[in-house]
Amino acid sequence: MSLADLILTSMKRDVASLELVPGKGGVFEVDVDGKRLYSKKETGQFPEESDLLLRIQKLKA
User: Fold this and answer.
1) For the chain, which terminal residue's Cβ has fewer other Cβ atoms within 10 angstroms, N or C?
2) Reported pTM
């Protein structure tokens, strides 16, 4: 299951849509309602799925 599928499945009441924007150079960023929740460019690694879901849940609460 992809991260996008996991977010949509886990948070179907809080996330109405999800947009994937292809990038270059290994950039992976997650923005929710205009707020940056995660940036691989800043951390140098992909997020843990559970950590990312928790960040989204806190923002949507």
Assistant:
1) C
2) 0.76
